[in-house]
Amino acid sequence: MMESKVTIPPAFEGPQVFSSAERFLGAPPSQYLKVWQMPKRFAAMAFTKRQVEEQREHNRRVSNTELKKQLTWFSFCSLGVGIIVATGIFSFMPYIYAFITGPSVVISLIIAAAAAALSALLYSEFAVEYPVLGGGFVYVLNVFGEFPAVLCATNLVIDYLFSTAAVVRNFAVYIAALFNLQDASDFQKSVSFQTDPIDWLALLVVMVLTVALLFSMKIFDESNIFLQVIHVGLVLFTIIAAFTQAQPSNWTPFFPTVGKTDPTIVLSPSGARTILTGASNIFFVFIGYDVIALGAEEAKNDWAVPIGMISSVGVVSVIYVLMAVSLVMLIPWDVLAAQPGDVALSGFAYAFTYRGMAWAKYIVALGAAVGIFTSTGIGIYGLSRVFTTFAREGMIPAFVAWVPKRTGTPFIATLAAGLACGLMAFFTSFATLANMTSIGTLAMYYFVALAHIYRRYCPEFESLAVSGDRQLAVKFRPDPFKNILGVAGKKVLLLAYLAAITGCAIGFTLFWNLSLKNGGLIGTAVAFVVVTLCLQFTLPIEYVPAKFSVPPWMMPWAPALSLWANVMLIGGFGAHKSDYVRLFVAMGIGTVIYLFFGLPTSWWRFHGAGKKDTVPLPVGAIGSTTGAVGTRSDSAHQGHHGD
C-alpha cells in the first residue's frame, strides 16, 4: 500500500476569475493552440478520474465559493415531483391509454415506476458519496473518466434544453384554455423568416424564472414548494372528480383488441406485449428525477438527496396510478381513441366534457399551467447546474462557474441556461421540440448503472480503512478469482458480464421490434438471468459505501435491471431514427469540445507549470479531509499520469 498525497492546484479565487485569460478560460490561451499535443494529452487524461476531496476544493476555488447548502429533502422531493409530473400526467398518459394499452395502462405504469425507482436508487447512492454538482456526469467521471463523462453529459445538456423549451412552449395552450380562447394564437405570432410562430409568453415565463433563480435559490425553493402543493391539490381534485363518474365496466376487457363502443377501433398486440410496450413508452414521463442529483452540493445534509429522490419517484408513481385508474373508469379507451391525436393528448379535458362535466376542464388546464411553470423553472435550474459542472471541470470556460458569495448560486451559468431555454422556446414550436425524446438522458442512466456495478465489484483501490465518516471498502468474502485471474483478469471478467447483459437487452429489443416469435424473447430473457446469476456468484462485492447504498441482497439485480431497461428504451421501444442521429451528433459535438477545449484545460489543471505532482487519482480513492489517500501499488495503476 502506498500513500499518494493530493496537491490542490492554484485556481481562480473570487472575482479574480475575470482578472486574466488563464483564470477566465481555465488555462493559458496558448494551451488551446497546441493541437499537435492532442494525442499525448488524450492518452494521459481521457480516462482519468477524480478524487472527491480534491474535486470539492477545486470547485470552491473555481466558483469562488461552494453553493449554499439550503435544500432539504422536502425541497428535493418538490423538485422531483415538479419536473416529473409537469404536463405528462394530463396528456401523454391518456395517449398511451387510448392508442397502446387500454385499461392495462395501470400495469404498464407500475412496471415503469419500478424501473424508475431502481435507477433513482443508484443515483441516490452516488449522490451521498459525491456531494457535488453534476449528477450522472460526475458519477461517470469518477468511475470511467473524463471522455466517457463528456459524451454522456453533452446529450444531457441537449435533453434538458429541448425538454424545458418544449414544456414551456405549451404554457400558452393552457392559458388560452383557461380564458376560453380558441387557441394560443393570441400569445404566438407568425413571422416571415421561419415556419414556427414565435411565442413571447414562453420567453416571458423563462425570463421571470431565470431572474428568480439568479438572485435567491431560497425564494425559488419556497415558491416551488408552494406551487407544488397547489399542483398536487389540483391533481387530487381531478382524481376525485373523475371517481364521481366512475364506470367499472370500462375495465373489461383488460387486454382489449377491439373497442366495445366502436368496433372499428383496434388495439394490437394484446397481453404481455401490450403491457411492456406501454411501460416502455410511458417510462418517459418518469424522466427528470436526476435533477435532484444535479444539486447534491446544495443539500443541507447527506440524507436530503436520497430521501428526496426516492420519495419523489414514490409520490409521482402513486399519483400516476391513481390518475390512470380514474381515467379508465371515466371514459372507455376506444371513445378516446376515436378522437384526433391532439384531442387524446388532452385526454382528461375531453373525458370530462364527454361525461357532461365541461367545467372540470378548467381545473385540468389550471393544473397543467401550474405544472408547466414549475417544471420550466426546475429545468432551468438543472441545466444551470450542468453548465456549472462543465465549467468547473474545464469543459467550457471557467468563468461560467462563478458563484457570488452573496447569493450562493451560479450566476453566469443560470443566466446562460435561461437565455438558451428562452430563445429555444421563443423560436421553436412544441411539435418540433417534442419530436426529440429523452434518449440522451436514457444513455446517461445506462452509464450510471454500468458505473455502479463496476465500482461495487471492481473498485480500483484496496483498503479497509475508515476515513472520517467514509468507509472505503468492505470485504464480504475471499475472492478466488482475484488470485486466479489477477486484478486485470477480474476486470476483464466483469466487463464481459456487463457486455453480456447489454447484449441480452439488445437481443431482446431486436426480437421485439422485428415482431419475431416469443422464443427469442424468452431466450434472451433467460440468458440475462443466467449471466446476472453468474456475476452474483462468481464476483463478490468488494465495496459498499458507509452512509447509503443499494442493499447487498439487491446486488447486482438492481443495477442490472436498470441497465436492461435503459438499453431496451434506447434500442427502440420509444425512440425514433432522428433520436439516434441526434444522439451521435451530440456525441460528436461533445468530442470536438473536449478535444479542443476540455482536454487542454484538464491537462493544464494537472500538468501545468508547477503542478507536476498533482495527479487525478484512480476511481474509488475517496480521500480524507487531509487529502491523503491509499491506492494500489501494482504497476497497472502507476505511471500513466506522467508529463
TrEMBL record:
Among InterPro entries, the record links this protein to: AA/rel_permease1
A GO molecular function assigned to this protein is:
amino acid transmembrane transporter activity
Q: Where in the cell is it found?
A: Membrane
Regions that span the bilayer: 73-98, 105-124, 130-153, 160-180, 200-220, 225-246, 275-296, 303-331, 362-387, 408-427, 492-514, 520-541, 553-574, 580-597
**Keywords attached to this entry:** Membrane, Transmembrane, Transmembrane helix
A Pfam family reported for this protein in Swiss-Prot or TrEMBL: AA_permease_2
GO annotation, cellular component aspect: plasma membrane
Membrane-topology annotation of the record = Multi-pass membrane protein
Q: Would you say which domain of life the source belongs to?
A: Eukaryota
Its family? Belongs to the amino acid-polyamine-organocation (APC) superfamily. Cationic amino acid transporter (CAT) (TC 2.A.3.3) family.
The name this protein carries in UniProt is Cationic amino acid transporter
Q: Name the species this protein comes from.
A: [Myrmecia] bisecta
The lineage, from the top, is: Eukaryota, Viridiplantae, Chlorophyta, core chlorophytes, Trebouxiophyceae
